[in-house]
Amino acid sequence: MITKFPPCSIQLLYSMVGNMTEPNLILIVDDNTTSARLLFDVLEKAGYQPSIAKNGEEALHQLETVSPDLILLDVIMPGIDGFEICDRIKSNPKTKDIPLIFMSALSNVDDKAKGLKLGAVDYITKPFQQEEVLARVQIHLKLRQQTRQLKELNEQLEQRVAERTAQLSRSLNELQAAQLQLIQQEKMSTLGQLVSGIGHEINNPLNSIAGNIAHAEQYVQDLISHLQLYQRYYPDPVSEIVQDAEEISLPFLTTDLAKLLNTMKVAADRITHISRSLRTFSRSDHENTIELQIQDGLDSTLLLLQHRLKANSHRPAIQIVRDYAELPSIACFPGQLNQVFMNLLANAIDAIEESNRDKTYAEILENPNQIYVETELKDNSIAIRIRDNGIGMTETVQQEIFKPSFTTKPVGKGTGLGLAIAHQIIVEKHGGSLICNSAPGKGTEFTIELPL
Ligand SMILES: Nc1ncnc2c1ncn2[C@@H]1O[C@H](COP(=O)(O)OP(=O)(O)O)[C@@H](O)[C@H]1O
Ligand SMILES: [Mg+2]
């Protein structure tokens, strides 16, 4: 059997809304029972799910428990009038998004404007045409649905943007970390090769000097004894010998020669020490960790910084106070760890120099520049503390110091990479921690903790 719909617009609207999966809830607020009933029937027939509130109080009461998709609101009612209800609905966050259509016999332009201003989406003049009511209801329900979809889409989009941004900043961090590691590896391998090359080259001539000084000392001693033998058995030499002995100040020469040789021996020992430190410092890092005595790393680094610590015309020498605990040797990448010590100690010296800027030599002497280097054995870790009484840092600066390229030093002096590299080496390469504690004008302490 073929059902033929009459070519009526209401029927068309009915068939359109009839396709919707869930019927839309529509609240009719009208004190006129006949008019409300009529509207109810039209909407129900069109496939909606209407309900009626006979006055404002009842409407507000219903709205506490149900959330309609649309409200049709009469303006003139006993008790709370339509405008007042509209105002309350719009100022309640729970109901403010429900589209609201005014219905009134008034065709007064002012009332329409007032209703729309209060947040109504439309205005229907009574007595209403069924087609008009259904068309308007449908449009606003559709608008409402689309607004919802738009809002959802927008939220999804925002979430996706947030996810993407987080992902990008993670990638950027990883990239920066990788870049740092590259710089650090590159620097260490060139520097390490250079330093160990020098250490190696110095070694042979140094061994030759140090080894021969001992022989030279012995030979000189023998020659002097021999000379003394001559003097004992030939107390009256010819005048030429007497004159020559006077010219060369023979007694002074013989005593001073021994001292001189001793000084040379001390100097050679010192060079040997420096050369050994250079090699300790630059111990090229392999794939695997090597056992290191932390103390050796600290001492060799301090020795290499000696030229910056010693006294100059502006200030006395910076005092190094060592407080080393008995530590077991630990498995680590010594070249990298020494670079961390180097970065922290160089920063400490910079901070001290900075704090000396407005002080006189006497003032510095009174409150001497100091760097404490301490180690401590803890339960499952070792702590290394490097503390200076330099310029210190503000809270704001402290938040930034581990970021690559952050520096407060003039161009050409600071690169801002020292602490970023140090942080990476300690935290990522050694699974430890690097913490800064500082106050402006007081000084700074960096604590490295390495797991055992
Ligand atoms: N011991 C310290 N005392 C005061 N400020 C410090 C100290 N160590 C680091 N800083 C601050 O941290 C910044 C970053 O240090 P770093 O990464 O080593 O880069 P750079 O030394 O090249 O500036 C420095 O510019 C300085 O402001
Ligand atoms: Mg630095």
What keywords describe this structure?
single chain; 452 residues; alpha/beta; Rossmann fold; Heat Shock Protein 90; five-stranded parallel beta sheet; five-stranded mixed beta sheet; disordered N terminus; binds adenosine-5'-diphosphate; binds magnesium ion
Number of helices, where a helix is a run of at least 4 consecutive DSSP H or I residues? 14
How would you state the average pLDDT, rounded? 87
Largest sheet: 5 strands, parallel
- Identify the CATH homologous superfamily of one domain: Histidine kinase-like ATPase, C-terminal domain
The largest beta-sheet arranges its strands as 2-1-3-4-5
Give the topology string: H per helix, E per strand.
HEHEHEHEHEHHHEHHEEHHEEHHEE
N→C terminal distance: 89 Å
The helix fraction, in percent, is 55-70%
Query: How many strand elements?
Result: 12
Structural class: alpha/beta
CATH topology of one domain, which one?
Heat Shock Protein 90
Q: Report strand %.
A: 5-15%
Q: Return the CATH class of one domain.
A: Alpha Beta
Query: What hetero molecules are bound to the protein chains?
Result: adenosine-5'-diphosphate, magnesium ion
Instruction: State the CATH architecture of one domain.
Output: 2-Layer Sandwich
| Global geometry | rod-shaped
Give the C-alpha Rg: 46 Å
Low-confidence stretches: 1-20
